[in-house]
Design brief:
The complex is a heterodimer of chains A (about 525) and B (about 525). Chain A has about 525 residues and is α/β, with parallel strands linked by helices. Chain A has 2 domains: about 5-30 and about 445-525, Immunoglobulin-like; about 45-430, Alkaline Phosphatase, subunit A (3-Layer(aba) Sandwich). Chain A has helices spanning about 5-10, 65-75, 100-105, 125-135, 145-155, 200-205, 215-230, 235-245, 255-270, 300-325, 390-405, 410-415, 440; strands at about 20, 25, 40, 45-50, 60-65, 85, 90-95, 110-120, 175, 190-195, 275-280, 330-335, 340-345, 350, 355-360, 370, 390, 430, 445-450, 455-465, 470-475, 480-490, 490-500, 505-515, 515-525. In chain A, strands 4, 8, 9, 10, 11, 12, 15, 16 and 17 form a 9-stranded mixed beta sheet that branches. Chain A has a 4-stranded antiparallel beta sheet with strand order 22-21-24-25, with no helix packed on it. Helices cover about 50% and strands about 5% of the residues of chain B. In chain B, the strands form 3 sheets. In chain B, strands 1-2 form a two-stranded antiparallel ribbon. The longest helix of chain B is centred in the C-terminal third of the chain and has 20 residues, at about 505-525. Chain B starts with about 20 loop residues before the first helix and ends in a 7-residue tail after the last helix. Classes of the chains: A alpha/beta (about 525), B mainly alpha (about 525). At the A-B interface, strand 2, helix 4, helix 7, strand 21 and strand 22 of A face helix 18, helix 19, strand 5, helix 22 and helix 23 of B.
Chain lengths: ~525, ~525
């Protein structure tokens, strides 16, 4: 059976998160496991730029056709109309004057603006809304895994066992300054490699891990840090990559917290890392007060500074990618947990809001604007918010389908819901028939099943190191439908049969734990 | 043993009279327990230093309930019912399962230890009088060896040496039971002097002939393998006179025949214990166990020598020496704090105790033993398999110059330490549907400052780390709790939301995701390896 034909038989994949003993786990998985054919290879890279705090979308991309209503709604922060920059061929929409570089990139066809991105039933808490964006859940759902983590776990299901290996030598994802972010959290482990800040990165390169106190404790700390560094295979790969490439652009501004991070990203991509996803962050967007500097003009102030930081950094990064000749492999995306309120508050700031625009950029991005200007009511109140036009998960779907080249069913299983992609990217995917996917097999697999899909039973083959093994089958609602093993199992490979004759057809999840190793496999009963 | 001069400390055994606060209580408990329980800090803070240390040394000698048959489902025991103890049944067929049961049980004793120093001392003597269960074979002997160490852990060292000499596990392990006048076996005589009493210090000058002569004194001991009883077989005993080297002042132990042959052991121990090196050797080992591994000349003069004298004048009673060490200004010297690398057992059992990880009730003993086994296995992966030290010398971290404790940390063991911390703080370990894991919410609730991210981080670092981390790292931890926001109230609001509606899974999740990320980061820092 062809992968595609077979996948069509799968019921709609609106998989709910589920819980085991109150501990939610997430469904994920390539339904075909190691039997997939007609797979697509990609070396495309995604750079996620997280703007922490909730970026004021209305002062970023300005609906000029709503300017009058906008100025009555937010008199204390409104940008002077004359200062707003225009895009070529667009009259009704402008951009903050601090973002001239982004405006130029748009004019060059390297930026796509998505208007009013968000999700239904906006949550106004930073924490909760950040989690929603990073995990890709609905407003009323709780996922503990991140959308990138699920994507990477689908691609490399054996990670971290037996990694790095010849098939994948490098970190799957690198997060700079955002270990906090659950975006790379997979169903069992975090799939990301963290660099806590640019200083940490340069320490890694120099082998100097910060000062230690002049004491016995300091002596031991220094010893442990050295071992920690030596035992970190990924740190070595990152170091090697950084040493084999240099930034070529001279546009990187000094004292720019975002540029400092993107500079590292460009260097690592150029240095040959096969890392798929980079996550960088810039904080400070929670502009409840002093968003603008009224004395100097509303186009100045802290928000202007932040937007300039973003614009200058992205511009330099794109320039660097082009000079390094890796620009066709890299696309970037900004996002923030929410936009801000339409009306301004009494402290020359804005409070938490709803939908907001975001930028996608890169040489393979189709320039343009998706969506129309938001409508600003003539008498906006504290309850007035920007309505969502584009669900953020449609953008994730676009990236998964058209940038990371997943088929529809797999993309849906990563997002745990069905979202159609948007027309944002030139097709970066070429199908190759390479037989069994090497990513699926990379690393050490401790559990497999055959056949899959199956009818009334399938054989589950697993390894035990001689200690306790737990193998349990869950349905998509998170209920245990069968506990296959919960016991000490002698060392070696064992096979047990999973009798599914009494179970309805559909997807099941087989969760395996042996000692300090956990793996999850998707099983599909078809008849 | 070069020491950085600036870290030098001249403090000695004078009684510590400095401040007695949370920092001192934490330092003391980290060293005398296998992981500090949060509640014990305030408990000991209400006492004086003297009261605290006296209580810590006041160990109970009541034996805990012994290990049980947890293996029936895998190998049916014809005599001992599931859940009943096997320690008095000599069935050689089940030794594998029973040794495994014993190791899990032992890990359980450590995990559940009381406020006293007992388990740390049992482990100390296990490392000192090292025996390997896999060599001993008999689970019963391994158990009685453990019970012996437990019962004598803070009593008299000289008596303990005698008891260990006649302990069935040791008689098997170092071939004492096969030491006969016709074929003397020098194994035990050698280790008795080289490892158990005199050590290999520069003043320990016994000769090869002393080893051979000592072996003759020790001939004749046997074990009844169906009861475990040790008895003296005078027909195997060498009853000739034994003369030792000038190191022992050419002492002659008069050979005794018949049942009186047993008396020669006391003569031998009296002769060995007359050497001051015995007291110094043991005090140095205690020092390395409780303080730090480097002993330079000043420490030798200021700490080792006076404690060794005390050890001798108190007739080798263990408690006075430990009391003097723990109450000394040297022990509380800031230069000596935070410098001990946690042993694997300290590290793994410590996780349970620090985070108060919950287990199954004892009625569910099979699952409970399997849960204890998680920690036994993790310590084994970190190269400390309780009950099976690598050799009679114990674990090399306690004797191998110059690295000592640093030997616990290498590019294989350190990732294994991170594996169990990552595992416990995130998904935990599934034992028959029961999840052994860190409950980040319950843990955080213990901290009165939990609503304030900065104070919470300070408190967590004070509790879980021994030395301060950089401002950079503190800022980073704060950004974890705040998801990159700058205003502390966002954490406070999230915590209050949860605290006012504790059963709401969304609200639980908002705070637990951030706590888990914070704890994971904090435990992955190198500072977490120090005690």
């Amino acid at each position: 059976m062809k992968r595609r034909d077979f996948l069509k038989r799968v019921a709609p994949m609106s998989l709910l998160p589920f819980a085991i003993n109150g501990q939610p786990i997430r469904a994920y998985g390539n339904i075909l496991g190691a039997n997939a054919e007609d797979l697509v290879e990609t070396d495309n890279v995604l750079v996620l730029i997280q703007l922490n705090g909730g970026n004021d979308g209305l002062n970023t991309i300005v609906p000029l056709d709503q300017y009058s209503n906008l100025s009555s709604a937010r008199p204390d922060v409104i940008l002077p109309e004359s200062k707003v920059l225009k895009f070529d061929g667009v009259s009704a929409t402008g951009i903050h004057p601090s973002m001239s570089k982004i405006r130029n990139m748009y004019n060059d066809g390297k930026v796509h603006i998505l208007q009013s991105v968000g999700y239904p039933n906006q949550n106004y808490s930073h924490f909760r809304s950040t989690d929603i964006w990073l995990t890709g859940s609905d407003s009323d759902q709780v996922y503990e895994s991140g959308w990138v983590g699920r994507y990477l776990a689908n691609e490399w299901p054996n990670y971290p066992n037996g990694f790095p290996n010849n098939e994948m030598e490098d970190p799957l994802a690198i997060q700079i300054g955002s270990i906090v972010s659950p975006v790379c959290q997979g169903p069992a482990v975090n799939m990301g490699f963290a660099i806590s800040n640019p200083t940490n990165f340069y320490q890694l390169l120099s082998g100097n891990f910060g000062s230690t106190p002049d004491s016995f404790a300091g002596k031991e700390l220094s010893y442990i840090r050295t071992v920690a560094h030596q035992s970190n295979e990924y740190a070595k790969k990152v170091k090697t990559a950084a040493e084999s490439a240099s930034n070529l652009s001279n546009l990187y501004p000094d004292e720019n917290r975002l540029a400092d991070q993107l500079k590292i990203v460009a260097q690592l991509i150029a240095g040959g890392l096969k890392t798929r996803v980079y996550v960088v962050t810039l904080g400070g967007f929670d502009t409840h007060a002093n968003q603008v500097d009224a004395t100097e003009g509303n186009e100045t102030g802290y928000h202007a500074f932040l937007l300039e930081t973003v614009s200058e950094a992205i511009n330099a990064f794109q320039n660097d990618l082009e000079l390094l000749k890796i620009d066709e492999r890299v696309t970037g995306m900004t996002f923030s947990e929410f936009g801000r309120r339409i009306i301004s508050n009494a402290s020359t700031g804005t409070d938490h809001g709803a939908a907001a625009p975001l930028f996608m950029f890169g040489s393979k991005v189709k320039g343009g604007i998706t969506g129309s200007n938001p409508t600003i009511p003539s008498s906006a109140t504290a309850n007035s918010n920007i309505e969502m036009q584009t669900d953020f998960r449609s953008i994730y779907s676009t990236i998964l389908r058209n940038w990371f080249c997943l088929d529809e069913a797999t993309s849906d299983s990563v997002l745990l819901q069905d979202f159609d992609p948007l027309d944002l990217l030139e097709n970066g995917c070429t199908t190759t028939s390479i037989g069994k996917d090497k990513n699926q097999k990379a690393g050490d697999s401790f559990i497999t099943n055959y056949p899959n899909p199956f009818g009334n039973s399938t054989n589950i083959k697993f390894y035990s190191d001689g200690s306790y093994v737990s193998i349990e089958i869950y349905n998509t609602e998170g209920r245990i439908v069968k506990s296959l093993i919960n016991d000490v199992v002698s060392k070696g490979t064992h096979t047990i049969s999973f009798d599914s004759s009494l179970l309805p057809t559909g997807t099941y999840y087989c969760k395996y734990q042996n000692g300090f190793i956990a793996q999850t496999r998707s099983l599909l009963k078809v008849q | 043993m070069a020491t950085n001069q600036t870290t030098r400390t001249n403090s000695g055994t004078a009684k510590y009279s400095g401040s007695w606060g949370k920092a001192e209580v934490l330092h003391l408990l980290r060293r005398v327990q296998c992981g500090v329980k949060y509640e014990d800090i305030s408990y000991f803070q209400t006492k004086t230093m003297d009261q605290a240390i006296d209580e810590i040394l006041n160990v109970s000698y009541t034996p805990p309930s012994p290990p049980i048959n947890d293996y029936n489902a895998r190998s049916l025991d014809p005599i001992i019912a599931a859940g009943a103890t096997w320690v008095n049944d000599y069935n050689g067929q089940l030794n594998n399962y029973r040794r495994s049961s014993l190791k899990k049980w032992w890990m359980g004793q450590i995990i559940n230890h009381d406020r006293t120093i007992r388990e740390k001392m049992v482990l100390f003597w296990h490392n000192h009088f090292a025996t390997e269960m896999r060599v001993i074979g008999w689970a019963n002997f391994a158990y009685t060896n453990n019970a012996l160490l437990r019962l004598n852990c803070l009593k008299n060292f000289k008596s303990l040496v005698k008891d260990i000499t006649l302990d069935p596990a040791m008689l098997v392990y170092l071939n004492g039971e096969r030491n006969t006048k016709s074929a003397p076996d020098e194994n035990y005589s050698r280790e008795l002097q080289e490892l158990f009493t005199l050590g290999k210090g520069p003043e320990s000058k016994y000769t090869e002939n002393d080893v051979q002569t000592g072996a003759k004194v020790l001939t004749g001991w046997r074990i009844n393998k169906t009861t475990g009883a040790v008895y003296f077989d005078d027909t195997r005993h060498d009853s000739t006179d034994k003369t030792f080297s000038s190191f022992y002042n050419n002492t002659t132990i008069t050979g005794q025949s018949g049942a009186n042959g047993v008396n020669e052991l006391d003569d031998l121990l009296n002769m060995i214990f007359a050497q001051t090196e015995v007291s110094k050797h043991i005090v140095r080992k205690l020092y390395r166990w409780f303080v730090y591994y480097e002993i330079d000349n000043i420490t030798e003069i200021n700490v080792i020598a006076p404690l060794a004298t005390l050890f001798r004048t108190s007739n080798f009673e263990i408690k006075p020496v430990l009391s003097a060490l723990l109450k000394s200004e040297h022990f509380f010297d800031v230069a000596n704090r935070g410098a001990l690398i946690k042993s694997p057992i300290d590290f793994t059992a410590g996780l349970v105790r620090q985070y108060d990880i919950g287990f199954q009730p004892t009625t569910n003993f099979v699952d409970l033993y399997n849960s204890w086994n998680i920690f036994y296995n993790s310590a084994t992966l970190q190269q400390q398999s309780i009950g099976d030290p690598p050799s009679v010398a114990g674990w090399s971290a306690y004797y191998q110059i110059p690295q000592f404790h640093e030997l616990w940390i290498n590019s294989d063991t350190l990732p294994n330490r991170n594996k169990i911390t990552d595992g416990l703080v995130s998904y935990g370990y599934n034992i028959n549907g029961f999840r052994v894991k860190i409950n980040s919410l319950q843990f955080a609730e213990k901290f009165t400052n939990v609503r304030d991210p900065e104070l919470l981080i300070d408190d967590l670092l004070e509790y879980l780390h021994t030395i301060p981390v950089s401002q950079d790292q503190q800022d980073y931890m704060r950004s974890i709790l705040l998801s990159g926001q700058v205003q502390n109230h966002y954490w406070t609001d999230a915590w209050d939301d949860y605290a006012n509606d504790k059963n709401n899974t969304t609200k639980q999740n908002i705070v637990s995701v951030r706590l888990i990320a914070l704890l994971k980061y904090l435990m992955n820092l190198s500072e977490f390896q120090l005690s």
